[in-house]
Design a protein that fits this description.
single chain; alpha+beta; Arc Repressor Mutant, subunit A; two-stranded antiparallel sheet; 5 helices; 5 strands
Length: 136
């Protein structure tokens, strides 16, 4: 995912492009690791000494509300964030704890018994051991 001008992207989605918001969104774009609030804060606080965890959390909540980021909750006690809004799933390695994007063709997933339901949201998560950890 590539966005030429982060400030313009935020404006298009009715988000005032403050320096902190632009840096947080840029971090999500450049670090496809599905980071936590703590990871984002630790990385950006070196460059932005006035940044707080509350600002990171509130900014991510705004991004989610405006539809430019999503929450990934594979584990109950771990919230991660993703700026890739294209259709895809996630795989979490139980060894190295990395979360990988997984291509998903949602129209090819067979779900019986849901014909009378309107689905507004779906999540596809897998857990296991990634190829790197298997080869150790």
């Amino acid at each position: 995912m590539y966005i030429e001008n982060v400030g313009d992207h935020l404006k298009i989605h009715d988000i005032k492009p403050s320096y902190q918001r632009m840096k947080i969104f840029q971090y999500l774009l450049e670090n496809r690791t599905h980071p936590t609030v703590d990871e984002i804060y630790k990385s950006l606080s070196k460059e932005i000494p006035t940044l707080s965890k509350t600002t990171v959390y509130n900014t991510l909540s705004l991004f989610i509300e405006k539809g430019i980021a999503r929450v990934i909750t594979i584990e109950e006690n771990e919230t991660r964030y993703d700026a890739d809004m294209d259709v895809h799933g996630h795989f979490k390695c139980v060894e190295c704890k990395k979360v990988y994007d997984v291509p998903v063709k949602i129209d090819q997933i067979l779900i019986d018994g849901m014909e009378d339901f309107k689905i507004n949201e779906y999540h596809v998560y897998f857990k296991g051991i990634c190829s790197k950890c298997q080869n150790k």
